[in-house]
Amino acid sequence: MRVGFSLPVFGSAAAEPGAVARYARAAEQAGAASLWVGDRLLSPVAPTVSYPGYETMPDEFAVAQDPFVVLAVAAAVTETVTLGSSTINAPQYQPTNLARQLTSIDVASNGRLLAGLGIGWSPEEYGAVGVPMAERGKRLDDTLDLLDAWWTQDKVSHEGIGYTVPESHVGLKPVRKPPVYLAAFGERAQRRVAERADGWLPVWSVPEQFPADVVTGAVAKLRAAAENAGRDPEALGVALRVNVDPGTTVDAIAESVAKVSSVLEPDHLFVDLTYLTSSVNEHIDLTGTLLELIAKG
């Protein structure tokens, strides 16, 4: 089982100077297979849409690092771990800048980037970047078109939504075309995964909030749709985020991870430590403990 962990992007651990580099080094040395970032621009005091399970927003989101900077730092201090995002809210970024950032991170990491993208759900965040939230789906499609051109063509031209790329030399290419995994729960979004993505970004919760067959059934449905679209269904990957409630024991986390992995068999799985630790030392200690418990089975 290849188990990864969230980097200290949110909360008090993220505010510690040098936290990302220190944790990334330690996690790789402890045996983590992957390291992951999330993406939160704002933590509104009175959000139009609250975070699932909260009346407003988690306290941890009041401190949020830039996901691209965090990935770049982690790339610089590690050698082998996959560096992923689950997820970056792609429509909130100007597409050509996003393409350059992702390419640069892949080059810096020697081809270890997994680009996990989504459309987000916060009206306040969309308002803060001046992007109409109603356009987020078609803007993600446009971004996927641009990324494909940016990563595969020496000369790139593109007519995007609100921007134009004249025919231009784009000489910086990723070490290998980064796999693009998409977060998707609605019908249109899941169709996009089946037709365009390299993988899906589902979520599992500890304590469990739904049976494992909800996730396995969704994967089977996505792979069937991919096959209907003329794609290899088995090539559609799964990167499972494991969200853990505050106060959950390490034994409960390890047991749940083993359970869901045995039935889902994801190609990537990572435990989000955001709500379990308040310092980088705790982040490091919990990572080592979980890896030991999971290895013991």
TrEMBL record:
InterPro entries: F420-G6PD/mer (IPR050564), Lucif-like_OxRdtase_Rv2161c (IPR019921), Luciferase-like_dom (IPR011251), Luciferase-like_sf (IPR036661). The keyword Lipoprotein does not apply. The keyword Isomerase does not apply. It is an enzyme of class 1 (oxidoreductase). Its EC number is 1.-.-.-. It comes from the Bacteria. SUPFAM superfamilies: Bacterial luciferase-like. Residues 2-258 form the Luciferase-like domain. It holds the Pfam family Bac_luciferase. Keywords: Oxidoreductase. Transmembrane segments: none annotated. Gene3D superfamilies: Luciferase-like domain. One of its GO terms (molecular function) is oxidoreductase activity, acting on paired donors, with incorporation or reduction of molecular oxygen. This is TIGR03619 family F420-dependent LLM class oxidoreductase. The lineage of its organism: Bacteria, Bacillati, Actinomycetota, Actinomycetes, Pseudonocardiales.
